[in-house]
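Practice problem: predict the structure.
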Amino acid sequence: MKHFAILLKTQLKLSLIGMVGEFTGGSKKKISRIAIAVLIILAFAELFGMYLWLIFSFSDLLISAGQPDVFLTIVFLFCMLITLFFGLFQVIGNLYFAKDAQFLSSLPIKQYTVFAVKLTLTLIYELITLLPFALGALIIFGIKTSANLWFYLKSIPIIFTLPIIPMLISTLFAMLFMRFTALSKYRDFLTIVGSILLFVAIMYANQKINYMFLSSKTEEIMSGLLKGSINLSDIIGSVFPPVILATKAILNTGMSWMPSMIIYLLSTAVFVFIIILLSTKVYYKGLTAQNETAQPLGKAKRPIRGKQQGIITSVFIKEWRMLLRIPVYAINGLTSVFILPIMIFIMAGNNSIQEANIGQILNMLKDGKDMLSVLIITAMFSFIVGINPAASTVYSREGENYYFLKSLPISQRQLLTGKLLFSISIDILAIILTAATLYYFLPLAVWNYIGAIILSLLISIATSALNIAVDFKNPKLEWTSHQQAIKQNFNSLIGMLLSLALLIVLGFISAFLYQKIENQIILLITILTLFTIITAALVVLLYKLTNKNT
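Answer:
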């Protein structure tokens, strides 16, 4: 226990030093970083305010319907499913691909201690992310129901243990993946595919709940809600049973809350014990196997002879190889490629696509004017382009190799062009795959999709230029895990916020032009021209920034 406390304290200090390091340096750099931090806080405050407003309205609906427990069940389920999905990426990055993982495993400390420290650190990161949302919903619920002090006291152990069970399940998946695929030359590919399959399973569970409601009659559901004869909390919580225990432990009165609380905390403790016990058999073998090479015996490969690749092409290929060889980069960088197609397929598989909100949107596209359909589809494509962190970390992911790249006899313009084309290529994959999936379920006129693809491509170039400019100006080159380079990187958040701001501006411009110009062809040409001018201006500014700093 002493070694655990010392090692955890050291790891927390190193993480804190890394965060503080973001705001150190020269006076100009410090001022710019502080200004960026203020902007991030303001943006987060605005988003959090919108979240609280939605929660406030949603709680009114359920409490007035006599189903207050459903509100907490949905909030807890949302938090646990988010942890289950994104926790897998956190675990793989922090436990297996951290720079200090091999070093810590070689120390004269029991292996389960190192594992417990790394896992605890990951849980702390996840808890910090979830805490504002869970506490905000809980406080609003308490105010709405005039809850007493005992309600808040019972909530404390639940809130602080909320991410543990889903994180441990993600850890179990990660350990099994890394153990049984480590010696395979396709281990990175299997890790990526496994993460995508887990995402599909979570999305399927979510849509299964929606289909459960949509397959029933609305009148019967509303009647059951008003009479209190339908316990929706148990139905929804059955997707992830610990949610039911957490809800009952907080809401049950008298002494009836105690069994649920005891079972919930005891099952959490047992799960922790089982995972740590398994780590002594599975984790260390999977970790050490990462440095082993599983190459089939045979003849040595001969060097490939042919034409020498251009510098820009070489940089482009290098970026793709780095992305595909490191699972943390691939999972985070390629999520935007698959997220919308998977969602559409799952909803269509549940036969709910025509009845759910997405069905209403698609019907509106089918019945609306051609140019309106183009703009709405462009908005869908542009959103997945804007949330991709691949562009905003192209220099940060280099780490210490960044200085080696600068010493090579190539210009920064060539290096930048290769990285820009790499970022755009990911967006092109996402746009085309989403367009093909959407066209399969919504066969609008082909020109609608072609117009949306062209507009989205221009937006992709603009957002890529913005994101790369952010990372070029202040790359995060000192990190101990690949997870820190892409997920715990301020540049990812800054790039996402700038991209969303650009999308909002372009959306307002498009809406204004749509109201003023009636001719569809002239409207399309006008929007294309404006998007092209904005995109070209951003690309020119990016290259000027590069020339200025070389």
